[in-house]
TrEMBL record:
Classification of source organism: Eukaryota, Viridiplantae, Streptophyta, Embryophyta, Tracheophyta
Gene Ontology MF: a single term: ER retention sequence binding
Family that this chain belongs to: Belongs to the ERD2 family.
Name of the protein described by the UniProt record: ER lumen protein-retaining receptor
Signal sequence region: 1-25
GO BP terms, alphabetized: protein retention in ER lumen; protein transport; vesicle-mediated transport
Underlying gene: LOC105041412
Organism listed in the record: Elaeis guineensis var. tenera
GO cellular component: endoplasmic reticulum membrane
Length: 215
């Protein structure tokens, strides 16, 4: 554990808390992409296949449970909650996310560290997480105006991955046998996808104005 990994985990956790606050405090999931949430649920379910077989630490296990349970709960709420599901922007959330799943799975079959069931699905989760935010960003661009809590959620989600890049750089220079290249490439791609959002987020913060994304 290092400061960058901890900052990344806490930022990720905070992004989830902000999203849950938006959904339950406003009784609305408007502006939130169900397809992105489904992708994240799939990411965590396939990445943490070792939850009940390999114990690393209490902290590690708790974080895995939190991210799996929160992502599944958000998907359930947006799909089945009698009040929340009526506020879902279905007409705007039309990104074909199954394509991302298929491409990520093919990449995992072709490029992975070790040819085991768990490692292939770990690679799949890394590739899929890199692009899971795309439906959310497309939905926000289509809607134009972004409410404060949704904007905060996307910002902290992007910041989490930026901290993880610093974590990987730190581990590369401090751990002798750390040389996993898959997270590096996927992490840089994921952070690059946020670049446009970060730019408009900074402009809105600087001008103390409501966040708006170009169509």
């Amino acid at each position: 554990m290092n400061i960058f990994r901890l900052a990344g985990d806490m930022t990720h956790l905070f992004s989830v808390l902000v999203l849950l606050l938006k959904i339950y405090a406003t009784k609305s999931c408007s502006g939130v992409s169900l397809k992105t949430q489904e992708l994240y649920a799939l990411v965590f379910l396939t990445r943490y296949l070792d939850l009940f077989t390999d114990f690393i630490s209490v902290y590690n296990s708790v974080m895995k449970v939190v991210f799996i349970s929160s992502s599944v709960a958000i998907v359930w709420c947006m799909r089945y909650h009698p009040l929340m599901r009526r506020t879902y922007d279905k007409d705007l959330d039309t990104f074909r996310h199954f394509i991302l799943v298929g491409v990520s799975f093919i990449l995992a079959l072709l490029f992975h560290d070790r040819s085991t069931f768990r490692e292939v699905f770990w690679a799949f989760s890394i590739y899929l997480e890199a692009v899971a935010i795309l439906p959310q960003l497309v939905l926000l661009q289509r809607s134009g105006n972004v409410d404060n809590l949704t904007g905060q959620y996307v910002f902290f989600l992007g910041a989490y991955r930026a901290f993880y890049i610093l974590n990987w750089i730190y581990r590369y220079f401090t751990e002798v046998h750390y040389s996993r290249w898959i997270p590096w490439i996927a992490g840089f791609i994921q952070t690059a996808l946020y670049a446009d959002f970060f730019y408009y987020y900074f402009i809105s913060w600087k001008n103390n104005a409501k966040l708006q994304l170009p169509a």
